[in-house]
Design goal:
291 residues; eight-stranded mixed beta sheet
Length: 291
């Protein structure tokens, strides 16, 4: 059964990572227990028990969680701080605020809005921003505010990025690029200060630029797919969250490939967004641990 925000009242999600060491699992369990919590889900991973890195995601129930969180955070700081561990804890009944940036392609954008309306994504969507207006009516039909911020011509995008930052800053917990066909600058990422998730076809870097599915057809590919990743200063090189592929044949046209590729992009992006919203993704260097 799908979790709802109401069903997650008094549930916390604790993320712990740092150097693997003896007794850390027992320490976390004891901490939750002495704070009157009951563990309902626990996932963990160690890259190496001797000198490796430890990652853990724990969901627990605690009556009157909101009132207890300050004391729990103090206990975490005292207990895990002495072990050199990093941690963060979230009230799972408070959905993350997700803004969406889009361009002319609407398949990923509308899929996220549809899944959100069905209650499949535990987020709020305070706004959609696009450098085109063709999706405005569709977005507003979902009851989501739409903002048009045209892109500047040429390599300098500072003016349009400043306008987008003015809308986003302080109002969102993460941003999704739903086929937003603009390169994000390092300055924008630094000023925004929240995670940004991107989706692209998995032909990169083989078929860069315009008409990738036509180029793929001409090359005779047998697999097409999509990759969802966090955005970093290195274009399309950020930590990967999710990927998938479908097999295709010589009989399919470039339009067939594009249609099937859009299906994969929708599925991959929605899974990546869901996992991020549920605190299932831990970034570690240039890769991720996904529980």
């Amino acid at each position: 059964m799908r979790d709802t925000i109401e069903s997650l009242v008094d549930h916390a999600c604790l993320i712990v990572h740092g150097p693997d060491q003896q007794g850390i699992v027992a320490e976390v369990a004891a901490l939750i227990s002495r704070n009157q919590g009951n563990i309902t889900s626990l996932d963990q991973y160690s890259s190496d028990p001797e000198g490796g890195d430890f990652f853990q995601r724990v969901v627990f129930h605690r009556p009157d969680l909101v009132a207890a969180l300050p004391e729990i955070r103090d206990d975490l700081a005292r207990t895990l701080g002495t072990r050199g561990m990093s941690w963060h804890i979230d009230d799972m009944s408070t959905p993350k605020r997700m803004a969406i940036l889009a361009s002319k392609s609407d398949h990923c954008l509308l899929d996220l809005l549809w899944r959100h309306r069905r209650g499949e994504l535990p987020v709020t969507i305070p706004m959609v921003i696009s450098n085109h207006t063709n999706v405005a009516d569709d977005v507003r039909s979902f009851g989501v505010p739409f903002f048009h911020v045209p892109s500047q011509e040429g390599p300098d995008k500072s003016q349009s990025e400043a306008a987008i930052l003015a809308l986003l800053t302080g109002n969102v917990d993460f941003v999704v690029l739903a086929r937003y066909m603009q390169v994000i600058s390092n300055d924008f990422l630094e000023k925004l200060g929240v995670p940004v998730i991107n989706i692209h076809h998995s032909f990169l870097p083989a078929f860069i630029g315009a008409a990738p599915y036509r180029k793929a057809k001409e090359r005779g590919v047998k697999l097409i797919g999509a990759t969802a990743h966090y955005v970093t200063e290195e274009l399309d090189e950020g930590p990967i969250i999710e990927q998938d592929v479908v097999r295709v044949s010589h009989a399919e046209t470039a339009a067939d490939l594009q249609r099937r590729g859009a299906d994969v992009e929708r599925a991959v992006l929605s899974r990546a967004v869901l996992w991020h919203a549920q605190n299932r993704v831990i970034r570690h260097g240039n890769h991720t641990i996904v529980f």
